[in-house]
Amino acid sequence: MANASRFQFIKSQHVPTLTVLQAAIEDFSYDRHAHDEYAFGVTLAGRQDFFSGGQFHRSPPGNVILFNPEEVHDGQPGGERALDYLMVYTHPEQVKPLFADALGREHSADFRSNQTLIQDVQLRDAILELARLVTSQAGSCIDQENALYRVIERTVQLGGIAQPNQLISRPDALLGLAKEYIHAHLETDMSLDDICQAAHLSKYHFLRLFRQYYGITPHQYVINCRINAARSALERGASLNEVALRFGFADLSHFNRRFKRIYGMTPHQYQCDIARSPSELKNRT
């Protein structure tokens, strides 16, 4: 039986790090994972069921879904109808100046929305317009940048927290050390003991604290980070075998399975999507 789910990734021709996912899902469920980017989504048809922030959510058509960077979530169709939705991804560094302007601060700390499931027509329409400009290759660079700013501005208006770097709790600081170590050693055969030592925590306390804070195990986090790093390498044109070996996957088959559980397609399919123009993607069947 052919896979009834479809996924298409389209990168902006103008704005770095800006990517749109168009997805239609009937028979697919995402593993729990997190992205480095902000993710702004709209449920178009069906119902989107997902876990995030310690809660289970149901998103009917017209609802907005917003994930902060590194916010763990999963996802699957809910109800009897197929799920149709889109997501817009953008890296925090890309939008930090936009958040600063929307907050009225020259130097803004990292902004985190305090809502995951949002009913707001203005934000929904802003996301849809940004996605339209990217997928149809319409407008100039400044048109897409302005559309992205509208999304950021409305997100700030709906509420959130601009986190000052100096106000970090001790658990956050220790887990931050662990995450820094993981990101610095994605291409090496790191052990749990290595990560615990970097965090200055016993294995018992580290495991409990990590899962409590992030909703996934350290092993799941390491795999997730490697997949995200592999995705970036694929976008730069690296070969599949090179990427699989660089980031610690036993072989291409292992890499394929892990990648597909997070992105809905194989690494080869993703690399082909990114290389295609929006007009070519529209003609795909």
From TrEMBL:
InterPro entries: AraC-bd, AraC_XylS_family_regulators, Homeodomain-like_sf, HTH-like, HTH_AraC, HTH_AraC-typ_CS, RmlC-like_jellyroll, Tscrpt_reg_AraC-type_HTH. It comes from the Bacteria. The keyword Hydrolase does not apply. Keywords: Activator, DNA-binding, Transcription, Transcription regulation. GO terms for molecular function: DNA-binding transcription factor activity; sequence-specific DNA binding. Residues 176-273 form the HTH araC/xylS-type domain. SMART domains: HTH_ARAC. Pfam families: AraC_binding, HTH_18. PANTHER family: HTH-TYPE TRANSCRIPTIONAL ACTIVATOR RHAS-RELATED (PTHR46796), TRANSCRIPTIONAL REGULATORY PROTEIN (PTHR46796:SF2). This is AraC family transcriptional regulator.
